[in-house]
Amino acid sequence: MECIYELAYEVSGGLIVNWTQEAFKVATVVKMQRWLCLTGEFLKDQLHCVVCLVYAPNDSSGRPLLWDQLRALKASFSEPLLLMEDFNEVLHPSERRGVLECQGV
After folding, report:
1. Is 52 helix (H, G, I), strand (E, B) or coil?
2. Does residue 103 register a pLDDT over 50?
């Protein structure tokens, strides 16, 4: 089993991607604070692709930069992109669990 990781940023728990060399042959690794990407090949299907794991900021103000980075990343590869993500999007604030609301004084 192989892995790469990115340590926690702010309050996130960090990122880790695991794979087996028998299933996926890694060509390159790209790491940023909120995402990890591997380029390589799924050996069984001979599928060359980019696999990315993304953890978006909890606040919406940080998301435009993340989207700009992901667009630039996608534009730099011709292979299909598999995006695994947690974009921290909710329809209603009540959907957020375990978060205390803070109000300014």
Report:
1. strand
2. no
